[in-house]
Amino acid sequence: xxxxxxxxxxxxxxxxxxxxxxxxxxxxxxxxxxxxxxxxxxxxxxxxxxxxxxxxxxxxxxxxxxxxxxxxxxxxxxxxxxxxxxxxxxxxxxxxxxxxxxxxxxxxxxxxxxxxxxxxxxxxxxxxxxxxxxxxxxxxxxxxxxxxxxxxxxxxxxxxxxxxxxxxxxxxxxxxxxxxxxxxxxxxxxxxxxxxxxxxxxxxxxxxxxxxxxxxxxxxxxxxxxxxxxxxxxxxxxxxxxxxxxxxxxxxxxxxxxxxxxxxxxxxxxxxxxxxxxxxxxxxxxxxxxxxxxxxxxxxxxxxxxxxxxxxxxxxxxxxxxxxxxxxxxxxx
Length: 333
Prior knowledge:
- By secondary structure, the chain is of the alpha/beta class.
- The protein has 2 domains: 3-116 and 289-310, Rossmann fold (3-Layer(aba) Sandwich); 120-273, 2-Layer Sandwich (Dihydrodipicolinate Reductase, domain 2), CATH 3.30.360.10.
- Helices cover 33% and strands 23% of the residues.
- It contains 9 helices and 14 strands.
- An 8-stranded mixed beta sheet has the order 8-9-10-7-11-12-13-14.
- Helix 1 (10-21) packs across helix 8, helix 5 packs antiparallel against helix 9 and helix 7 packs across helix 9.
- The longest helix is centred in the middle third of the chain and has 17 residues, at 172-188.
- The chain is globular, with a radius of gyration of 20 Å.
- The mean pLDDT is 96.
């Protein structure tokens, strides 16, 4: 099976590593930028192309890994669909209706369209899901969750003005709201948007809102307060506290742990996680991304969409929630 990684920026290069870590030899890359092609070829020994049609004719991929800026995801996904090519698609934040339509188009076919859900493969969210499913703290009542990282620290090797996260539609904080909802909704269900406040609080050279405060109501009247920001420095922030009828769960990015306590316990029970393998110039470990890519590869090999834990339909519902939250602020952009 041949895999073509479309877009060889930081995520595209990570996906090349993921595929190679899974023992896949037939990997190539496509990117219009010469510097990215050259770096990917030198680091990973893959063939690279500056023209997609040439890549199709010369390499003949059976699957795409689309790691472009979000506003190009659907362009390449529809290109793939028309040619019977399966796709992995990084987290999306735009083109909700196109995502919905593509989800309907693939229902009766054999190709796989796998939208990213990387956080579901992180040990913290996996442990939280397990604790909630085993009723460790009784009925969930309220969730407070804040996550963020100073935007210029995402890609310290380039100016944010040259990076899609500085654009309003694909802005850093706006993009991370659906990225986080992908795993939160997997645990709690499909929410109703209750309130949203967003603003630009810093002097970063970008026309974006750098903080989103989102209030959501899930099934069984579970209230979730989600704060996504691109302000926190010098360290990234990831802190969650879940209150249940019989106990609490605390997820700490700083401690890299999940701990819980309930009314039958005298002390907290803490689960510490390994920091994993972190590549130079990256912050997050490789292992969750490799596991996610393994699910995609298996789904493609078996031509079975159901083997991948996320779907275009889920992505559409999440983007619909994002738009509903933004409408509550009076901002219809």
